[in-house]
Amino acid sequence: MNFAFSEEQEEFRKMLRRFFEEKAPQTEVRRMLEAPQGHDPDLWGQMAGELGLQGIHIPEAYGGQGFGFLELGIVLEEMGRVSLPSPYFASAALATNAILNAGSEAQKQDLLPGLANGTEIASLALLEAAGRWDAQGIAAEARPEGDVLRLFGTKELVVDGSTATLLVVAARLPDSAGEEGIVLCALPADAPGVSVEPLAAMDPTRRQARVRLDGAAARPLGEPGRGAAPLQKTLLQAAALLSAEMIGGAERALDLAVAYAKVRVQFARPIGSFQAIKHKAADVLLELELARSAAYYAGWAADEDGPELAEAAHLAKATCADAYMKAATECIQIHGGVGFTWENDAHLHYKRARGSDILFGDAASHRAALAAALDV
Q: How far apart (Å, rounded) are the C-alpha atoms in residues 74 and 10?
């Protein structure tokens, strides 16, 4: 069994790194943060038209490139390096996978081509006031009415919800509880009965919104009431992909810290020559490489679509969240006070690390889930 990337995958990574370093230097990232959309629509179009990134793992039958989760993970890792403000994660790693996992053949043929070519942007609306990233926390109701479902409820912290043109909403049928009666529904973000309210997010590179549903008509993806398993699979895949993105951010935070330690002089010496700074960088590197192994294994497990996905995804999310948080924290510590200023890039990685840790549950919750999966 070979877990190494192929020569083609490594060339793909190099090409992406050149592309994002050219198109999204930090000056451009800060400009995107100030844009009304929270990202660069022109860059989004280039990603779709020139590279086909939005449909990288969508089967060719639905207008995609037909690659897998390893390639999608490489894309997200390189995006994480530059802290790219983009609805890519919400659309490609969340909503697209929900449609692939839950939708019928006809629904995939209808919905996926627009996501693959970038003309549509989608997001998954799941989290509610209960604060749980699973079926147990879903209270939004889907009431059958003819051929559609009428949705009622409020979804919190919907990633790029204000940018999305298509929403995939997790709800439950009336008089259901637990994992019974869960349904994933698709509807336009501007449909009657849908209200989207942008929220102030700690991480400015990943916008969030509150979505209120007041009788909005939606199509069920697949058979209504059987959405719990596709939803759980989608969340595990998303955790694995977010881990890849965090590895890219952690690596970049370490690079920034090391570069600064080489040029910052104290007592007539670069601070990188001091033992304490060396230890900080070495500790980060150790955690980073251990987390990288977990992230790549989770990507492989998602690609294989086997029983190892749950354990691999929980392990990767916990270790990568910890590694990114440590890398971002030590990056600021090595920079000193300048690391907190808006002009410095270190604080962007710190905010992204904080936001990514919470997304889909923090490291502690994933360690608990891993322990439960291993029955220990």
A: 9
Give the H/E segment covering residue 169.
strand 166-172
Confirm if 197 and 222 have CB atoms less than 8 A apart.
no
What does the pLDDT look like over 233-282, one tens digit per residue? 999 999 999 999 999 999 999 999 999 999 888 888 988 889 999 999 99
Residue 140 to residues 12, 57, 124, 174, 236: CA-CA distances in angstroms? 41, 30, 14, 9, 22
- Residues 319 and 291 sit within 8 Å (Cβ to Cβ): yes
Helix (H) or strand (E) holding 101: helix 96-102
For residue 145, with 0-12 CB atoms within 10 Å meaning exposed, 13-18 middle and 19 or more buried, which class applies?
Answer: exposed
Give mean pLDDT, residues 218-247: 95
**pLDDT given at position 147:** 85
**Residues 312-337: tens digit of each pLDDT:** 999 999 999 999 999 999 999 999 88
**Chain centre to alpha carbon of residue 184:** 19
Domains delineated in the chain: 7-116 (1.10.540.10), 122-225 (2.40.110.10), 229-374 (1.20.140.10)
Q: Is 63 left (phi over 0), alpha (psi -120 to 50) or beta?
A: left
Distance CA(244)–CA(248), nearest Å, equals: 7
Q: Report the distance separating Cα 161 and Cα 124, nearest Å.
A: 8
Give alpha helix (H) positions in 3-94: 7-23, 26-34, 41-49, 69-81, 88
- Of all helices (H) and strands (E), which one includes residue 171? strand 166-172
Q: What's the full length of the chain, in residues?
A: 376
pLDDT one-digit tens code per residue, 140-150: 999 999 888 99
Count CB atoms within 10 A of the CB of residue 177: 10
CB 212 within 8 A of CB 156: no
